[in-house]
Write a structure and sequence with these properties.
Length: 516
């Protein structure tokens, strides 16, 4: 991404997508000569004990783990994360087979004190930073920055970031080759600054940081106390390459530095920031899904079994589907209000359409999340009482995490609703079109990162507007087959072209091009 002086965006030509799994040439060259260090709050594996009391590893789900652990085939790699369970703490460090070909990755857990982790994760990262970055604070009432938040900052967020930085520095120093450090997400904003402070020029390393969630405008960051805001910006400006999901997020970051870090020099056109004798390149690398792995899962007997069950239950009617973690940022309640509006405005859909929601409980320790789950249940109850009959239940929810079941549901939708208030990317919007069998229509919020790529095939809605969302549902449900097919084909093409391999490849190629 580059940014013009009038702040309009000029997108660089996308990096070439590898033709096959041998990856692009410069990937391998970079990785051959580097030791790779990945850091994220959640690790690529978790541990349990089997009946004999032996520790057993379980690979975590998601494309990020697939993509980054796949690098272990090409590089000497170590992944640093926080221990989430007693068993993780007991494991501490060692090689874990993760790659598809059985290649192994060193996994190292850090174990903050319980109270420090509580402040780091449950007070600062979620909700304070998460809500801020998804523009979700209702500032008349919240947040109130009180002593608890300051304690959680000093003894939680700052200290856990220091632990990460120390563990990463140890690996950098011990590495036989220059290190390439790939830090992930909003939990670790301070770590790059701490690493640079500790190592100065004692070792050769490149710091790459990827922010998975939206980066809002400078005004939103103005809500944080300046000490926190400054620490976050200084931390990120210690990275060599800073990646965001969209060009707009990158531009917002540069603007935030321009407004709140007066000593920094910024260049929008080049996507570059200079601060304290160090320069940071800012780019967008839209994350995606592992298309090949998803295709394999979609063809599995387990998915086929769920597919048959769901078809039997919902196959006779048109199906609107949503799949989300129960997060307020997903705008689930307004999605149901829009469905209510649809049934009100277009009564011909009553009895003929069902809304199926697959909801995965998330962060239930955070009060706002609990309240939101109650609101979701409330609105579903109202709709089912208002319109339901003995042979038609308008809304059905299935709560719990079951990925094969979710994939089977994605095969069946006529309409997939993604109406988030803000979303870094939203991978459901990319998974759906890949596995769907029905030329289903994607309704996509204009405030998702996915919009940057998927707009040509989707129906785009403003997430606060339930009338527009209801009309988009009607348009999708009554769309002629030829248009549905054309849109579905376009979406598939766009997603296949830029999958998770391309995401990783673009980052490594940028490092090579910039000589970092
Ligand atoms: C969402 C975000 C990710 C983030 C994750 C953390 O999925 O898009 O960027 O890393 O939440 O989830 P957790 O369950 O670890 O709080």
């Amino acid at each position: 991404m580059t940014l013009d002086t009038d702040h309009s965006l000029i997108l660089d030509a996308p990096a070439a997508v590898p033709e096959d799994t041998a990856l692009c040439q410069s990937w391998q060259e970079i990785l051959l000569n580097r030791t790779l260090i990945i850091a994220s709050n959640r690790g690529p594996v978790s541990f349990t004990r089997d009946e004999a009391g032996e520790l057993q590893s379980h690979r975590s789900g998601g494309g990020l783990v697939t993509a980054l652990s796949g690098l272990a085939e090409y590089a000497d790699a170590c992944w640093i994360a926080t221990a989430q369970t007693e068993e993780d703490r007991a494991w501490r460090e060692g090689m874990v087979p993760l790659g598809e070909s059985g290649s192994a990755l060193r996994v190292k857990f850090i174990s903050p004190e319980a109270k420090a982790y509580e402040g780091f994760y449950h007070v600062i990262a979620n909700p304070l930073l998460w809500f801020l970055q998804h523009s979700m604070w209702d500032i008349v009432r919240a947040p109130t920055i009180n002593r608890k938040i300051w304690e959680s900052w000093d003894n939680g967020y700052v200290s856990v970031n220091r632990l990460f930085a120390e563990a990463i520095c140890e690996q950098i120093i011990a590495a036989p080759q220059p290190a390439l450090v790939m830090l992930q997400d909003y939990h670790l904003y301070l770590a790059p600054g701490f690493i640079r402070e500790k190592l100065r020029s004692r070792a050769k390393y490149t710091l790459m940081f990827f922010v998975h969630i939206p980066w809002p405008g400078a005004e939103d960051w103005g809500l944080l106390p300046s000490k926190m805001r400054r620490a976050i910006l200084e931390g990120l400006c210690a990275a060599d390459l800073l990646g965001f999901q969209t060009a707009e997020d990158g531009m917002n970051f540069i603007r935030t530095c321009e407004s709140h870090l007066p000593e920094a020099r910024v260049n929008f056109k080049r996507g570059r920031i200079w601060y304290r004798n160090h320069s940071t390149h800012v780019r967008d690398f839209p994350i995606s899904i592992d298309v090949a792995a998803l295709d394999r899962l979609a063809a599995s007997p387990e998915v086929a079994e769920f597919h048959d069950q769901l078809t039997e239950r919902y196959g006779r009617q048109q199906l609107i589907l949503r799949i989300d973690r129960t997060e307020p940022s997903k705008n689930i309640v307004r999605g149901f209000h829009a469905f209510d509006e649809l049934l009100e405005l277009h009564p011909e859909h009553r009895g003929n359409v069902r809304f199926l929601a697959l909801l995965v409980p998330s962060r239930i320790e955070v009060e706002e999340y609990q309240k939101y789950l109650d609101e979701i249940m409330g609105v579903i109850g109202q709709i089912n009482v208002k319109y339901g009959s003995s042979d038609w239940e308008p809304v059905r929810i299935l709560v719990g995490e079951d990925y094969p079941r979710a994939v089977a549901a994605l095969q069946l939708y006529d309409v997939l609703l993604v109406n988030s208030l803000a979303d870094g990317m939203n991978l459901v919007a990319k998974e759906g079109p890949i596995v769907n069998h029905c030329n289903g229509v994607l309704i996509l919020s204009e405030r998702t990162g996915a919009r940057q790529q998927l707009e040509p095939g989707a129906l785009i809605i403003p997430p606060l507007d339930i009338y527009a969302t209801a009309e988009a549902m009607h348009q999708a449900l009554t769309m002629p087959l030829a248009e549905r097919r054309e849109r579905a084909d376009r979406l598939r093409w766009l997603i296949e072209r830029d999958d998770i391999v391309a995401w990783l490849c673009q980052q490594l190629e940028t490092i090579a091009q910039l000589n970092l």
